[in-house]
Amino acid sequence: CNGYSEAVDSPALSGNATHSICLAEASDDTARHSKDANFQAHTPSSGPNNVLPGKLFSLSGNTRNGICLVEALDDTARNSRDNHFQTTHNSILHPAVADDAREKLTVYYQNVRGLRTKIDDVYLAISDSGYDVIVLTETWLNDQICSSQLFGNAYSVYRNDRNTLNSRKSRGGGVLIAVATAINSCIDPSPVASSLEQLWVRLKLADSAVSIGVFYLPPDRKADVTSINNHIESIGAVHNNLGPNDHALLLGDYNQSGLVWTRADDEVPMVNVLQSEISSACAALLDGFSLHNLRQINFISNRNNRLLDLTLVNENMMEACSIREAAEPLSVIDADHPVLEIELSLLKPDFSDVADEPALNFHKANYDGLMDALHQMDWSFLESLDVDNAVSRFTEVVLNKLAEFVPPRGPIPKPPWGNARLRHLKRIRSKSLRKYCRSRCPFSKLQFSRASNNYRIYNRFLYKRYTLRMQDNLRRNPKQFWRFVNTKRKEGGLPVEMFLENCTGSTASEKCNLFASHFESAFNSSSSSATQIEQAVRDTPSNVISLEIFQITPRQVNSAIEKLKSSSSSPDGIPSCFLKKCSNALIEPLTTIFNNSLRQCKFPTEWKYSEMFPVYKKKNRRDVANYRGITSLCACSKIFEIIINNALFASCKSYISPDQHGFYPKRSTCTNLSQFTSFCLRNMDAGKQVDTVYTDFKSAFDRVDHGILLARLSKLGICQELISWFESYLVDRHLVVKIGTDKSRVFTNISGVPQGSNLGPLLFTIFINDLTSALPPGCRLFFADDVKLYMAIKSILDCLALQCLVNRLVEWCSKNLLTLSVQKCCIMSFHRKLLPITYRYTIANQVLARVSEVRDLGVTLDTALTFHCHHDDIIRRANRQLGFIFKIAREFRDPFCLRSLYCALVRSILESNVVVWCPFQTTWIARIEAVQKKFIRYALRGLPWRDPLNLPRYEDRCNLLGIQTLSHRRKTAQAVFVAKILLGETESPAILSQLNVYAPERTLRQREFLRMDHRNTVYGLHDPIRFMSRSFNDVYEFFDFNSSALAFKQSLLS
């Protein structure tokens, strides 16, 4: 078949007629638009909403490279979808129908009987539903499924998945409450039982608050009185926190089939005692409802005329609540659980969505015309201007040119797969629904059923085509492909209401100011005095580096522009993508401005303006303190910083300690951890223990004192003109927090180096490098601001010596106005002794916490350095990401697209710092390899194997995808790491000193390239440096000192 075809049975027809949709995929947009136009719904002349019982859609046209997809709905699904349209006592209403929908809260409830196999269909239904609150039971979700896969960014999702705490079973169950992001919501702070599958969420509305709860009582616990009592106690805890005008709504599947509910006229349903089988659990449940004054209002029974799903409200909500069966379900209906829609006559708060700032579309810019216009500019006037005026004029000219040659970016379509035909079908469906809600006649029901079916089929088809298009974008537009993947992986957006200590904010402007207060608090409250500066730089060496004022050349500017990362945004409106495209026309004015700045010893004021964006870290999302700031600087200032950074680093490279592995070329977390773990294992192999103090500075980058830093740079040997320039660069920087188009008040930095800059990390490295004068080598390691002190312990005297080093660190911090966060500092002893030496280490008279495992630069270390905890952690995380790939890539058929996803999301986890923790036990090697085996089987599932039960060897299947086994890649990584050390491509004098090259005067017999020292234990034989040296010896014949490590790696992989 050359086109896409989808056959769907119409639920409105009595026969089994099949209606097909055929679509052809063309290679260009024009053909695709014309194809969509041919996708037509045939309607009779009697009315625009009537649909013929014949073909729903038809399409003619040429197709190319298509795939035939035929999907049919079975009779069971069709009948279950028909059942929910049966007439009930109340009229059926959809949220889009109500005239006063903005003044009422609509809640959707359904027992979905599992979502894991319905993710795409439910996602499409939810994206078009418009409900304020969605409550689901029996979700069957787990931590491998992100909420964004179901709800996108339109809802704040609260989940209580089934786990070992709330159930005796490992599968099924689970409850969920999703609240529209425009409504202020949070987890109800009331103490509720964690041993149950229940969840309470509090909504803050315009004039009141509503606590919405959901509860699932599985059939195997429906007679458990203890569970019922725990649930009743949780209800009481929630009700005790309600205000006089607050409301409560509880929905759930209680599975109490013995209860018979009857309803007279419009009265509230009551339990029929004579017909009910009231067990002790039922009695406890009903008594609890009465105790807390909850009334059950659901009267919509299932196919057995029973109520398994209950809806309970408190007295305040009785008059403001109405319930009905939902007109259109979000998921396939279970006949035992009708779909409910509850309407609450409560005023919703008027929160406007955060709008995106109007931006320019640099992808469609006329760069030829822009380059010509910039080349015609005479920039000589910049030489005679003050640097601030020169930057202002430069920015003005460039922005005018951008406005002339770069078109504005249009609105993003919602949904991104939608088109005019889909919007037309949606209008028809809405109109049919309104007509059905008014008349409730069988004919209008038939019209709505057909209109809804037409819309649903076409929407599903467009989404599938959109997904396949994203697969093709991996080659044509990788950024768009990964943007699509990240929308499924990450949950973005901020809560409606946030707080910082005792202050709260609901609007975007209020939240911006809360974040501004939080980020501003990270700076020092005051500057250093002359006495403090003198004490801080007393031990700083004099004139060890030399850097004088210099002239910047156009070649340096061009090289710096090439190093810029491409971006389409910048605080001053001149993004880096434009600078890279038009670099030839901008090198002259930028060179002039940079030289003027150095000559006048002044950094341009406009380039000291930065925008900060909050990024969530962990814990409560509503707490502003749980966010860190990402700073966006002007792109032109980054070019200037790259040039200064290169000159400064070239002059101070020899001054920076070899124990500093952060922000230093050719050093990394891998060199830091390899040096440290090898030291520990060597001493453990000799029967010693190693005590390590892990320290944590409080906002180290933001608390660097400007006076001390400038004095240190001056004493090191930097000329006074550059010191004045650095002072202008550091002080009086203006920052704002930006969320959408809203900005906070402007605040300035009293201390700190600019984060997000190219020059800031090097300045911080120079500042903290002075700590090496207080701590002797061989017992310290740095990675930026992460400092660990360690020592081999043979007696209590060694513990006292390590405590002395800790005291020196504390003294240095006091002199340099840095603060240690004692609560985050800890002590860990690495050993394999039955009776280790235990000493109580302190910082400022506070005893450090002793831990049994610690996460050091991304690797989890345990006391015995077995790395078992780390192995288990990466396997768990890799399997979670692999499950994510399986769910989002169901429609992907290109194995190489799947390979890209696997390498980026899964294999990167399994190979991060692999030379440090490389396993040597068969069990762990097999468990790690099993992750890739699962992927290989999934990626090649579409191949026509001759015998699916007898597949080719695992290694051969890996070769089909062009990847190697993980064990082979680990050995290659070890050998390549040694090669980089020997060739100088990775710099670590401590590791190089342990690589003993065998170089005899004359060749006697075949010997290993690297000589191995003797070890006493198995773990001693596999310390990282010795282990990787052995892997290098196995392949050293491919190594050449006159070649590169990359060439060596390619020869090994081939």
Automatic annotation (TrEMBL):
It comes from the Eukaryota. Residues 33-54 are annotated as: Disordered. InterPro entries: DNA/RNA_pol_sf, Endo/exonu/phosph_ase_sf, Endo/exonuclease/phosphatase, RT_dom. Keywords: Nucleotidyltransferase, RNA-directed DNA polymerase, Transferase. Residues 596-861 form the Reverse transcriptase domain. The keyword Zinc-finger does not apply. Residues 40-49 have a biased composition (Polar residues). Gene3D superfamilies: Endonuclease/exonuclease/phosphatase. GO terms for molecular function: RNA-directed DNA polymerase activity. It holds the Pfam family RVT_1. This is Putative reverse transcriptase. It comes from Aedes albopictus. The lineage of its organism: Eukaryota, Metazoa, Ecdysozoa, Arthropoda, Hexapoda.
